[in-house]
Amino acid sequence: MSRTHRTSMILYLVLFVGCGDANSEETLISHDFEPIEIERGGEITDLCQSWKLNNDEPVYMTAIQQTNGGGWHHSNWFFVPEGTYLPNPEVEDADATEEGTWRCEERGFRERGAAALGGVLFAQSTQAAQEEQRFPRGAALVIPPRSVIVGDVHLLNLTETRVKSSMRFDLATLEEVDVKTRLQLVNFSNGSLAIPPRTESRFAMACDMGSVYQASLGTAADYNIYYVLPHYHEWGNYFRLSLVDEAGNEETVYETNSLIGEPLGGTIDPPISSNGARYLRYECGYDNDGDDVITWGFGGHEMCEFLVYIDGGLKIAGGSQGAAEQVGVDDEARSLFETQCGPLNAVSDLGGGASGIPSCGAGNTFLVGGSSAAQTVNCNIAGAINVNVQAEVRAIPRAAVVPGATIDIDLSARVEIDEDTAALLNTISRGEPAEIKSSEAVLNFVSGVQSPTSTTLGLTDVPCSVDYSGGAVPVVPPTATVRVQVASDATTVDIELGEFTLVTRTPSPVYLTTGELPDDPMGQILAQCTATEATIQIPVE
């Protein structure tokens, strides 16, 4: 494919009326992506486009405007470190470059991986030919140095003629000194849609932001909302985002009944505070005039999701869990559905590009039932790398608990990498096998034992090399035997999973860490999570 494009940078002044005394100076960075040709009646869902910023310093984006020549159904855009999606020499031409148009699958692009390695830049409203995403004065999204803008594009030509169309971006940026608020992203998606035919309906989902803030930062939900961007397709006719406290009181943040082809997003100025509200609730409305149930998906299907830009120190993503349930009918005969929110992924913004260390399994107690069982503590790392830590234990025989006796407890930790994680690591390693370099779990015996009080389940230098391209990969390290003296009156032995650390070596440099890089940062992911309140109970039978 050809790689013609045009990038320009100009300086201009924007006068904010009623927003203060001084003018704010913005730098405009513009880029024209190369045109894409679509056959009449055709649809394109497998292409990505990229733009190399060549920025040696962070870019502080306060607004972005997209303009396209038609046929752009929707597109989602991210920023990632340089080198993340390099040309694949096995399937691409020799003149292919990091910037241009390419098939997403050939370079291992996945939206979740791109969001984890960098962040979400912008999402085009369905079939909108022009729209602007602008944050309130002094607020900006920070794009790190040496970043590449990459988009997963979906084009649809409903005309009777061949169409050649391109996308243009105009990024308005601020100087660092003018940035008062650095924004993070909240992204929820309701994939449990089953929109009934011949009726209007609304699908709602409420997610527990309070628990995420408490687990990650030790505080109540404390953030402000600056911009809201819904997303739905041609049957969509309504969106509402609201804050809900524990008493059920609801405050509407943003509401729109815009239709396909119209910009759906809106600036919240002045920003609206969460005021400690525990839940963030949203609903999408649809008018299905056909005879079939419409489910989640691309062409011929629907979606219900949003992007919200907030302050508050956390980047949060989540989705639905289980089927939607009809809960009633409103006064206008619309069918009302509720969907359960699934687990939320949260990453702390510590500055300097480092991800936070989220808690995993905090507050959960896992009781072993029967003579042996495997209990799982779900540990979310860096917002995208999900590691399940399993402790396999056997019940302690009551007859063996006598004064002065010691008992051997066999424990092992199982690291199971899920499919999305496998895809992400495969992207990082360019499809080459990666190695689990080392991992360990710190276990604290908190009740039922007289000694020892803690032990480290050492899993150092696990002898395995893993090809992540095949999907989920279980990694089984050695079993450790811990010798303890159990109290004679103990009914259970309680163990807290104090900390779990995983270090993975890959053939390529990785920019995703949860703290300081190791001495040799090249090709390493340092992933760590804490779960000081996640307890495993071993029964004494």
Structure description:
The protein is mostly beta strands. Helices cover 5% and strands 53% of the residues. It contains three helices and 40 strands. Strands 15, 17, 18, 19, 20, 21, 22, 24, 25, 26 and 27 form an eleven-stranded mixed β-sheet that branches. β25 and β26 (335-341) form a beta hairpin. It is globular, with a radius of gyration of 26 Å. The termini are far apart. The model is unreliable at 1-23, 350-387, 459-476 and 505-533 (pLDDT under 50).
Largest pleated sheet: 11 strands, mixed
Tell me the number of strands: 40
Helical fraction equals: under 10%
Domain count: the total is 3
Question: Which band does the percent of strand residues land in?
Answer: over 45%
Structural class: mainly beta
Please report the first level of CATH classification, the CATH class of the largest domain.
Mainly Beta
CATH fold descriptor of the largest domain:
Jelly Rolls
Low-confidence stretches: 1-23, 350-387, 459-476, 505-533
The number of helical segments is 3
Gyration radius from CA atoms, angstroms: 26 Å
The CATH fourth-level homologous superfamily of the largest domain: Copper type II, ascorbate-dependent monooxygenase, N-terminal domain
- Architecture of the largest domain, CATH level 2? Sandwich
- Characterize the overall form: globular
Distance between termini? 68 Å
Mean pLDDT: 75
